[in-house]
């Protein structure tokens, strides 16, 4: 079933960030708080200085109120990102990254740069990784085949970016395959 044009629009990056904000992140609370129930679940209790896991949306809210420090995910550090960048630029396949790495990194770097070691270098590495992965996406789409497209380890934001082109290209390829050849 084909979607009507009004439903085919891409998800915006802000919407992807909102979806990613449901992921859990570790925090170090600065205030005590009892277990609190929300629509998405119950979180807490918060007892400083004991770490606990809460959704990113809650962590950013607490961070903005100066009520916690956010512990960055294991992959959000200079060493890991440098290693991934080296793989991206030396290997033909996409390196494995968390599915929503781009959105999570943006939210955490926007809200809690003081909790992330060397945030400017992390931003720079993320930008370089993004550019390397975009180049691979373009290369993969240039080799598009009407029967299969294989781009393993593509992340949510990257899928969202190539979706409009991919849908149009597959439609054209399907039409070309169906048309009888003139000879």
Automatic annotation (TrEMBL):
The entry's keywords: Chromosome partition, DNA replication, Nucleus
Entries under InterPro entries matching the protein: GINS_A, GINS_bundle-like_dom_sf, GINS_Psf2, PSF2_N
Domain GINS subunit: 75-174
Domain DNA replication complex GINS protein PSF2 N-terminal positions: 12-71
Signal sequence bounds: none
The UniProt record lists the keyword Secreted: no
UniProt xrefs under Pfam families: PSF2_N, Sld5
Record's subcellular location: Nucleus
GO cellular component: GINS complex
Gene Ontology BP annotations: chromosome segregation; DNA replication; double-strand break repair via break-induced replication
Subunit structure: Component of the GINS complex.
Family stated for the protein in its record: Belongs to the GINS2/PSF2 family.
Name the UniProt record assigns to this protein: DNA replication complex GINS protein PSF2
